[in-house]
## 1
Amino acid sequence: MKNHEISIVDDEPINLMILKKLLSPSFLIRAYKSGAELLQAVEKGVKPDLILMDIIMPGMDGYETLSELRKDPANLGIPVIYISALDSLIDEEKGFHLGAVDYITKPFRPGIVLARVNAHLELKQARDRLKNQNEWLEAEVKRRMVENQMIQDTTLNVFAELVETRDNDTANHVLRTQNYVRIIAERLQKNEKFKKRLGDDTIERIVKAAPLHDIGKIGIPDAILLKPGKLDYEEYEVMKTHCKIGGNAIRLAINKTLSVNKTDNEQGEITALYFLEEAERIMNYHHERWDGKGYPEELYGDEIPISARIMALADVFDALTTVRPYKKAWSMDAVVDYILEQKGLQFDPDVVDAFETEIKAFRQVLCQDRTAANKN
């Protein structure tokens, strides 16, 4: 069985006949009298494993034919060997410059032609095998990354659902706030001030980390977390510790992971943990205020991480627009008025500006959630 196909291009019938007689016992041969005929065949789907081509031909010469052939990226892997009476170094250099893999001068010796053809076919086979292997490896890496991402997302959802299970009054809170966080972050990205700080990857990390913002509530006693009414001063002080409970838990997990992987990653830079570091910032500081009167560290202005500033507004918006045991849901207009009043006080002015621009998007998320709740 002939496994390789070779195209021969030469305007001299005698040369075509000699080369066909030499190669046909081992290879499937297609012969063309001009470069134009070869290009037409390739365009129709003929993909030879190797091309033997003369240079001096009427109409389109061998140089022009090769140039046209290489314009299609799909043809870059086809090796081309020139067989020509032109034997100057300049002619050879021109051929190699255009992408030919070899150059045989006429009159040629059959043994030389066979040796060169076999050598370049073996090289092509090796390149094809390597290409196929690389494509398989790339596909496998992509598959595993998708799989790992699914596991990671599922784990995050489990944590978020665990928090909601303990605090029934915040049903769907994490999903709504995640949507609000994305809306604000993507709007801030259009602000020149935040363009470099909020790249697409950073936004995805913030959005992914947002559902974990209240995970520290797992450490709050039921008597306080589930109290059907407003907390007194002492109870509120305990509730405030949920920020550090969550942040410390994430930091401990990160440090343990880095310690285990130290030999493989001396710098401690594990990409998969970047979003957890973002989650730590959000957990610790989403109750800080722009004016420095928040908790737990009373950070001021830009001292507060941008992800926590975004989360702060999203969290408050959702808390005010939903029913809690100790309050009714505020109207959308009342919440908007409150947030605008708190510009530069509780909230970062730029974050408030982004919110004001995207009020319609916020309203849509809230309405969709309420519609879904009513159907259930």
## 2
Amino acid sequence: MPQSSERDDAPSTGSLDPLERLVVDVFVDGVKVLGLPRSIGEIYGLLFISPVPLALDDLVERLDISKGSASQGLRALKGLGAVREVELNGGRRTYFEPAVELKRLVGGFIREQVRPHIESGKQKIGKLAEVAAREQDPERREFLEERIERLDNWLRRGGVMLPLIQRLLGQ
């Protein structure tokens, strides 16, 4: 299989034309920034540029990825609301198409990735405050309490901003 001439770290591709490869690379770069697996960007990118819905086997073959990676990637993308299942001609195969509405993509990312981190962060800050309160050195305790308060403010502000962002996007 040919190697991508665009990047040395790119895996070989099954049957992507140059335009498809470029679009897939755009989404791979995007998911890297978000800390998501490369296969999620590859799958979404190919679905995004495909004029027709694709089945799991199509994604495996065209992207030259394992069935497990494709299945896991589709599951994650469905959880984010970034892809949806469609039926074609009453067949037994499940096909997928991308959700292309920005509000849906951002809303899904906030719901599935950001909110859980904010919630777990709140719990961790409570534990940090308990530990800091037991600090014997008054200077260190004051320093720790100031930093914990700063973290708490960041999380509260993030919690306030998320609904505003979702409203802005029409969620």
## 3
Amino acid sequence: MDTPLREPTFLILTALAAQPMHGYGLIGEVAALSDNRVSLRPGTLYGALDRLVDAGLVEVDREEVVDGRLRRYYRLSPGGETTLSTETERLRRNVEAATIRLSKRTRAALPTTPRTAGGLA
């Protein structure tokens, strides 16, 4: 992928970097990673997972039946790992550039000439 990842996609890939997970596990992990800023609904998540599988970034790890329902686990593919690593580095560089600029701005905002005490005499 040549374009920056959207935050939900980045968080899904990040969650899968640790271990294979099933859909509802991913929903909880994405919420935890984002401090509950990103809340994925099942339909949104499974649509995203289908697109990520089609793009070769995520693979089906295994399926199992739990309480009569199919549970599918997903894992990060080698291509997904490369994409996540590239995006992480891009974001790191952006944060570094912003941090440098903000520190310069903070220093520039400090008064550079001494203030003299004024008053009536």
